[in-house]
């Protein structure tokens, strides 16, 4: 069977003008847009991000698919199966389907499961991934905190799945990015206090979006529940710089022009 092409398209972290040119071209040409949302009544964040830039494409179908924000496989599998079946109906008719996802399709994205499943459901299907600007890249741009320099190492953790090993991670890595904060903020603050790193941490929610929020004293948000776009970045800055600790400062020698 000749299936349509399946695209996984990253639409960026929130600001409409951070969508890449390649993503925009693919989204304009696709015959079907698959737009994930967390509930049947909620909006699709991917569509909210790309709508101002993409606009209306004549003849293009927009298909809103529900992927519940839940960790229970028994609830997730039926929802995923229904969504993938709807996508398959279009692909089997030879239509190209662009699955739009906020951030990048290869980082904590529902598209990862679809990409894994697609060759099993539709053997020989062509899959193309269009990378996007991830929130991990957006947070340094709005906080002014670089992710890594010189000898620094980075760790990325989904906090909502537990932070029991956070102490070890903080000791092993120079920059730690905690995504999907959920109810884990108090535990994270406590761990950072114990490690003496609470003043090296910054909380960011919805980076680059109109609702962007930055909190530099994370002690003030311990009672809050972080949304799915909330992150905490911890930066030790002990090994930053390509020549960090290796080259002593050289005193500048004063000179004057000869004959003056």
List keywords for this structure.
260 residues, alpha/beta, 2 domains, five-stranded parallel beta sheet
Describe this entry's structure for a reader.
By secondary structure, this protein is an alpha/beta fold. It has two domains: 6-130, Cobalt-precorrin-4 Transmethylase, domain 1 (3-Layer(aba) Sandwich); 135-235, Methyltransferase, Cobalt-precorrin-4 Transmethylase, Domain 2 (2-Layer Sandwich), CATH 3.30.950. It has helices at 21-29, 45-54, 73-92, 111-121, 135-143, 166-172, 185-195, and strands at 6-10, 32-37, 61-66, 97-101, 127-130, 154-158, 175-179, 201-205, 213-215, 230-235.
What number of structural domains do the residues give? Answer: 2
Backbone CA Rg? 22 Å
Low-pLDDT ranges: 247-260
**Strand arrangement, major sheet:** 3-2-4-1-5
Annotated CATH topology of the largest domain: Cobalt-precorrin-4 Transmethylase, domain 1
Query: What can be said about the biggest beta sheet?
Result: 5 strands, parallel
| Number of beta strands | 10
Element-by-element helix/strand order? EHEHEHEHEHEHEHEEE
Shape estimate: elongated
CATH architecture of the largest domain: 3-Layer(aba) Sandwich
Task: Bin the strand percentage.
Answer: 15-25%
State the helicity in percent bands.
25-40%
Class by alpha and beta content: alpha/beta
What is the CATH first-level class name of the largest domain? Alpha Beta
How far apart the termini lie comes to 85 Å
């Amino acid at each position: 069977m000749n299936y349509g092409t399946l695209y996984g398209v990253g639409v960026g972290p929130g600001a409409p003008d951070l969508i890449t040119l390649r993503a925009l071209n693919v989204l304009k040409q696709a015959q079907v847009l698959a737009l994930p949302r967390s509930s049947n009544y909620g909006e699709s964040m991917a569509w909210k991000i790309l709508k101002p830039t993409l606009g209306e494409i004549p003849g293009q179908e927009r298909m809103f698919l529900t992927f519940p924000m839940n960790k229970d496989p028994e609830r997730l599998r039926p929802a995923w199966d229904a969504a993938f079946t709807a996508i398959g109906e279009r692909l089997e008719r030879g239509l190209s389907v662009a699955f739009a996802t906020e951030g990048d399709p290869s980082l904590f994205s529902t598209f990862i499961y679809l990409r894994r499943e697609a060759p099993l459901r539709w053997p020989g299907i062509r899959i193309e991934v269009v990378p996007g600007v991830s929130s991990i890249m957006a947070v340094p741009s709005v906080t002014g905190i670089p992710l890594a320099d010189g000898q620094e190492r980075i760790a990325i953790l989904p906090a909502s799945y537990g932070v029991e090993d956070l102490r070890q991670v903080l000791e092993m890595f120079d920059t730690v990015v905690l995504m999907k904060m959920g109810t884990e903020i108090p535990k994270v603050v406590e761990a950072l206090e114990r490690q003496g790193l609470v003043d090296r941490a910054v909380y960011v929610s919805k980076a680059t979006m109109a609702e962007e929020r930055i909190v530099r004293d994370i002690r003030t948000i311990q009672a809050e529940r972080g949304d799915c776009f909330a992150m905490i970045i911890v930066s030790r800055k002990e090994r930053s710089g390509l020549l960090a600790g290796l080259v002593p400062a050289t005193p500048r020698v004063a000179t004057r022009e000869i004959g003056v």
